Amino acid sequence: MVKKKDGTWRLCVDYRQLNQMTIKDKFPIPVVEELLDELHGAAYFTKLDMRSGYHQIRMFEKDIPKTAFRFHNGHYEFLVMPFGLTNAPSTFQSLMNEVFREYFRQFILVFFDDILVYSSSWPLHLQHFRKTFQLLNKHSLCVKKSKWSFGAKQVEYLGHLISANGVAADDKKVECMKSWPIPKTIKELRDFLGLTGYYRRFIAGYGKIAKPLTDLLCKDSFCWNDQAQKAFNNLKLAMSSAPYWPCLILLSKALSARHQALSTYEKEMLAIVMAVKKWSSYLTERHFIIKTDHKSLKYLLEQKITTSAQQVWLEKMMGYDYEVRKVDEDREEEEKVLMAISGISTNLLDQVQLTWFTDPQLQNIIKEK
């Protein structure tokens, strides 16, 4: 028995042997970051939680005997889908996607049994709320009234605080990070990095800040020193001051020993490939601009391939429609536009000298002296 957040208990059965023999369902689980990005412009939120979500799905008759388990007073079988089955998460997410397919990512987000209805205005939110419950009623699905959060301007969803201002880390999680004791073992350190890593999108240079700590995860290298303590404190400070992000996403990663030996050109190229892969769902079939301060990367597609790594990276970029710009070029273009708009001229000295000859009063003063 496992105690849940609300104080109730959940029966968990050891299905490891059954899971090893089960053909895995590869149904895609939503990416949390992609779901949160859908909330741009929303101001009202209703959060719903399914009542014993898995237990609202009946087992196939022929599969019921496979769920059998032994208790102190006999053997039992599940008539509904239990926790612990390897395909239970995929099955449940597939059901939720099918139920809300018509409005999914329009004004409804679903991550397993967590449902979020979001709208830009109150009248619209009432309409969206009504449609959501019509779908739940149509498919005979029940939600837990005690865990409702109706028409709120700020809610906690998937470990984040959601509001019209944007997305921020959950205050409870931030407090947990701030009060985290100094790790004594690799497991404790891995738990801390796992928690902070979930919110790395909010921290500029997360990979660089956390590198002294991630280095300690290597085999036989856990030795807490001043450098690790400094990184530990800096990471706590960065997490405690993480702002709301309305749309911007930050990405960073500590380089492995093999990648640290690369040239600056190759490191920046690696960063581009990593970023494009990370945000592939946003960039596929869209034209986008890559800005860099490395001049040679501007000619990314024209340069001769000299290493196998470059060949692999360029192959990964081939399916995308992009152009590379040097940061300085954009700045120069912006300056030209601003000068054209404001009428600012760079030959100010020449203009001042010209006024000496065209201004009659100034000419009289010069002659008198």
Automatic annotation (TrEMBL):
GO molecular function list: aspartic-type endopeptidase activity; endonuclease activity; RNA-directed DNA polymerase activity
PROSITE patterns assigned to the protein according to its UniProt record, in alphabetical order: RT_POL
InterPro entries on file: DNA/RNA_pol_sf, Rev_trsase/Diguanyl_cyclase, RT_dom, RT_RNaseH, Viral_Replic_Matur_Polypro
One family name in Pfam for this protein: RT_RNaseH
Keywords of this entry: Aspartyl protease, Endonuclease, Hydrolase, Nuclease, Nucleotidyltransferase, Protease, RNA-directed DNA polymerase, Transferase
Keyword Nucleotidyltransferase attached: yes
GO terms for biological process, alphabetical: proteolysis
Residue ranges constituting the Reverse transcriptase domain according to the UniProt record: 1-162
Keyword Nucleus: no
Record-linked PANTHER family: POL PROTEIN, RIBONUCLEASE H
Entry protein name: Ty3/gypsy retrotransposon protein
